[in-house]
Amino acid sequence: MMRLDHVSYAVGPEGLTDTVARIADALGIERVKGGVHPRFGTRNAIFPLRNRQYLEVVEALDHPSSEKAPFGQAVRARSEMGGGWMGWCVAVDDLSPFEERLERHSVPGNRKFPDGRELTWRQIGIKGLIADPQVPYLLRWDDGTEDLHPSQAAEPQASLSAITIAGSRERVRDWLGLDDPQQKVKDLNVEFQAPSGTPGILSVTFETPKGTVTL
Questions:
Q1: For a Cys staple, 214 with which of 12, 45, 97, 205, CB 3.0–4.6 Å?
Q2: In total, how many domains does the chain have?
Q3: Cβ atoms within 10 A of the Cβ of 80, count?
């Protein structure tokens, strides 16, 4: 099974705190403190959403990992362009078909909580996102971490209703290996527009306490 897990927004020149405050004000919801991803050289803040989804606001740290790890590279590159939507992520039950197709192994990720608990996962596809920002990256949360999923960090006050992408539906379906027209990504509503420049996310629409909000 595939499902939309989260969307990632890279901070702009104002930094993490001010970017998060701007988004929180626009959506009318509170953020939850995230943490540092030591393997990637990044840190984030979280907006839990319904349907076990979340919005991540992420920043590259001044750390060697952010220059070596593809995820850190992707965040840094988007921030240096002024910030904005970096990518979207699909959760899957099994990463092995994607490892075989992309001919590389998934990489581990982790984030520790102040109480000592640790959220761990494996992900793949960041290099593909860097090369073609319309395609998602993929992850599998490790068994036993269900209660630590970022969407569970607080009672969700909003939901994600649509993503608008400059790109091609056929390209994205091919990337995900969705050969059967009946196959789809659960809880995902994507609108595609022909790209006039670089492909990628143009906007994300949320249902919030303020009504329908598009960022």
A1: 205
A2: 1
A3: 12
What tens digit of pLDDT does each residue of 36-89 get? 998 899 999 999 999 999 999 999 998 888 889 999 999 999 999 999 999 999
φ/ψ region of 15 (left if φ > 0, alpha if ψ in -120 to 50, else beta) reads left
Domain that holds residue 194: 2-214
State the Cα–Cα distance between residues 120 and 55, nearest whole angstrom: 18
Written as one string, the DSSP assignment of 170-181 is HHHHHHHT--ST
User: Measured in Å, how far apart are the chain's first and last C-alpha atoms?
Assistant: 28
Its pTM stands at 0.95
Structure tokens at 28: 């009318």
Are the CB atoms for 57 and 78 separated by under 8 Å?
no
HEC assignment per residue over 29-95: CCCEEEEEECCCCEEEEEEEECCCEEEEEEEECCCHHHHHCHHHHHHHHHHHCCCEEEEEEEEECCC
DSSP 195: -
